[in-house]
Amino acid sequence: MYIINDNGIRRDATAEEQADIEAREKAWTEDTLNRKLNAIKEIRLQKLQQTDFYALSDVTMSSEMSTYRQALRDIPQDYTTEDEYDLLLARDEQGNLTHSVWSKP
Fold this sequence. Notes:
The protein has helices at 15-30, 32-50, 52-56, 63-73, 75-78, 82-89; strands at 3-6, 9-12. A two-stranded antiparallel ribbon has the order 1-2. With 105 residues, it is mostly helical.
């Protein structure tokens, strides 16, 4: 049974409210893969933005940097399973991403 806080008054959820809560929880659980992919895409965007000056300036981009940026762009097609997403999102004790794809040359 779920408890609803209705303007400071705690009460048991109605059957309709309970069904709604359970439906939202189910949708949240079933969308885990998309949430992980969105987190990966956000990290990827940040990493690409950190190296955009190579592509947007007169600075010659090294082949290593070009390969790194391409690997970042290829993440959505190269990593497609939840286990692979978990590896991409893994962090060490200091909160640093541990997967090699994130390592800048």
